[in-house]
Specification:
The structure is a single chain. The chain has helices at about 10-25, 55, 60-70, 75-85, 100-105, 110-120, 130-140, 155-160, 185-195, 215-220, 235-245, 260-265, 275-280, 295-305, 310-325, 330-345, and strands at about 1-5, 25-30, 40-45, 70-75, 90-95, 125-130, 150, 170-175, 200-205, 225-230, 245-250, 270-275, 290. It has 16 helices and 13 strands. It has a seven-stranded parallel β-sheet, sandwiched between helices. A six-stranded parallel β-sheet has the order 10-9-8-11-12-13, with helices on both faces. Helix content is about 45%, strand content about 15%. The protein has about 350 residues and is an alpha/beta fold. The chain folds into two domains: about 1-155 and about 325-345, Rossmann fold (3-Layer(aba) Sandwich), CATH 3.40.50.2000; about 155-325, Rossmann fold (3-Layer(aba) Sandwich). α4 crosses α6 (about 110-120).
Length: about 350
């Protein structure tokens, strides 16, 4: 089959889809407006104000897609590439929701909600990674249930096969795994880490970047926290950091399942997460720290639960869970079978 994939080339998750589709024998034209973290995607450049760049790219995407003549248009993330894809023609149009798009952006205002509804309903199939996201899609946006596919995005074989490494009891290595945006409550993360650092020796690593990076660096200085801000790392180095984590932190107010969280759990990191449905699907009280996304609540839950024996059991339990439920290659085959069935009908 021929796929046109639209997505953010600065995100490894987009490349994982592109690479996996190619490895499965399909022809893929992958397009993005963002600079790429690796080879495999074509960049579209437009001259426009930042807020209009995706609208201004629609014509060029339509032209390139028409020349490629895909069987499937596969757009990732509702408000940007989902928007572009809603104006592009293909025999089958599939939208992958990433969580914050449908759970946060779509509820910013009545205008956002109406736009989300129009975009979503322009697709023949919508891919989500959690049952509660499907329920919101059906209830709030009127999307037909038989056109929603729920597939956990999963963890690649090479990550699952890496296994855990033995880590020293001290210092405790905390790794923040989410982009530096307001949605992920990084101010509370920093305050939580300050409380932990007052009681335990710690190392702190901040992966990713975002619009709040400089503010977070300033906050770390004010809190007298020694934080290693890595920026965007090569994937192999990113995995090395995850493998060295005692704890991985993700405390959004709303989200779907985080692939980075699942990867960290596969490699032995114990989650510190907000008490939301997406996290509860993967993290029980015996597998991590689950609390409201406030520093004091997280710290209280942490001190109540943490000791090295509990941590050792939790990381082993989490890894078993990921190996059982998060087989990326198996889930990709499910997705492709659904695509073939839709094209055949």
């Amino acid at each position: 089959m021929r796929f046109v994939v639209l997505g953010d080339a600065s995100a490894y998750h987009t490349h994982r889809w592109v690479d996996s589709l190619r490895e499965a024998g399909h022809d893929v034209l992958a397009l993005s407006l963002e600079p790429s973290v690796k080879e495999g995607m074509e960049r579209i450049r437009v001259v426009s104000p930042p807020k209009l760049k995706y609208l201004m790219a629609i014509g060029e995407v339509r032209r390139r897609s028409a020349r490629f003549s895909p069987h499937v248009l596969f757009a990732h993330f509702l408000p940007n590439y989902g928007l572009i894809g809603s104006f592009v023609h293909a025999p089958l149009k599939v939208l992958a929701l990433w969580g914050s798009d449908i759970l946060h952006w779509a509820f910013k205002s009545p205008i956002h909600r109406a736009a989300a509804r129009r975009i979503v309903r322009s697709y023949d199939m919508v891919l989500v990674d959690a049952n509660f996201v499907r329920d919101i899609l059906l209830r709030e946006f009127g999307y037909p249930e038989d056109r929603v596919e729920v597939i956990p995005f999963g963890v690649e074989r090479r990550v699952r096969e890496m296994g855990m490494v033995e880590l020293p009891e001290s210092p405790l290595h905390f790794v923040s795994i989410r982009r530096h945006e307001d949605l992920f409550n990084h101010g509370e993360v920093m305050k939580f880490l300050r409380l932990v650092a007052d009681r335990y020796p710690v190392r702190i690593t901040y992966l990713q970047t975002g619009s709040r990076t400089e503010e977070l660096k300033a906050l770390a200085r004010r809190l007298n926290l020694n934080v290693n801000f890595t920026g965007i790392l090569p994937y192999s180095e990113y995995l090395r950091v995850l493998r060295s984590a005692h704890f991985c932190i993700s405390i959004p107010d709303r989200d779907a399942s985080s692939v980075s969280l699942l990867e960290c759990m596969a490699l032995g990191g114990v989650p510190v997460v907000s008490d939301i449905p997406a996290n509860r699907e993967w993290v029980g009280e015996d597998g991590g720290i689950v609390a409201p996304p406030k520093a004091e609540a997280l710290f209280g839950a942490f001190t109540e639960r943490y000791d090295h024996g509990w941590w050792s059991e939790a990381r082993a339990r989490n890894r078993r869970l990921i190996l059982q439920r998060c087989d990326w290659e198996r889930n990709l085959r499910r997705f492709l079978k659904r695509i073939e069935d839709n094209l055949g009908s």
